[in-house]
Amino acid sequence: MNLTELNSTATAMVAPGKGILAADESSGTIKKRFDAIGVESTEANRRDYREMLFRSKEAMSQYISGVILYDETIWQDAKDGMPLIKLIEESGAIPGIKVDEGTQALPMCPGELVTVGLDKLAERLKKYYERGARFAKWRAVIDIGSGIPSITAISVNAHALARYAALCQAAQIVPIVEPEVLMDGGHDIDRCFDVTQRVLNKTFQELRVQRVALEGMVLKPNMAVAGKKSPKKASVEEVAEKTVRMLKACVPAAVPGIAFLSGGQSDEEATAHLNAMHKLGPLPWGLTFSYGRALQAAPQKAWSGKAENVAAGQRAFSHRARMNGLAAKGEWAS
Ligand code: 13P
Fold first, then answer.
1. CA dihedral 193, 194, 195, 200 (to 10 degrees)
2. How far apart are CA 215 and CA 255, in angstroms?
3. Which end of the chain, N or C, is less surrounded by CB atoms within 10 Å?
4. Residues with Cβ < 8 Å from 317, sequence gap 6 or more?
5. Among this protein's residues, is 306 annotated catalytic?
6. Which residues of the chain have pLDDT under 70?
7. Which atom belonging to ligand 1 lies closest to the Cα atom of 22?
8. Alpha-carbon distance 328 to 275, whole Å?
């Protein structure tokens, strides 16, 4: 393992004013997104859509440090035959790959999930590295509800995240470690804060046990927010203050960067929260976005599957990327 190289990739992924485009929706998830805009989820439509994003010059060259791809996309060619991964490299962004294989029900723990995909992961990572991927992503999902999360769900997911991260580093790939505490429930921000702290602490304990080099990874956490069904919505300032406090308590300064998921926040909320956190600086790590929905909802709508809308889709994507790029420096104004 070459830690200097891993560290410089991780540092580039969270470069000031830049963040990550999470375009790694599984076939099931992209179908849901396409259904919402009335587009059939065919291989060609998925290719056209992602090609539109990766050819967005302004966004890709100025505000996007890296792109997380799904397995199908990393092997796909653009309409003119150019591999999509080459489009990303030529824009100056770093290609990455989602390597988890989704979730399964966790035995003995009703309603809870464990992320799978460790079998044969070493071989898959080798092929992805040869194709050009320099970072990877694995998402664990922790739900908040009555009596959950269990310590069992937190432990097995943290263990799997650390197994994945160690395998990535051995393959010279920077792991994005993503323990996502969902914002689906009716809980308030303080419960999210407590659960996320427990999850992060357990995750870093496992990373240490499994000898993962913290200097060669990126953390992708949720923010401390109230659940979507909570009657008590937290203000932007409260989200920023509690999230920064939580991360300072749990994330060692050796970690080069933290890149948030948007997790169902609206586009503007995700931007405003990140911006407000930078107002509380200086921070010990790079702090930026790794958004899926909060970067793509607008371009998806503008595109709506029509070739004549490609320029409008690219404008919508570049706008959100620019807003989040500003927020990643604390320079966004609503
Ligand atoms: P969202 O920003 O839509 O939560 O997606 C980010 C991601 O990669 C989830 O794994």
1. 80
2. 5
3. C
4. 52, 53, 56, 59, 295, 296, 298, 299
5. no
6. none
7. 8
8. 6
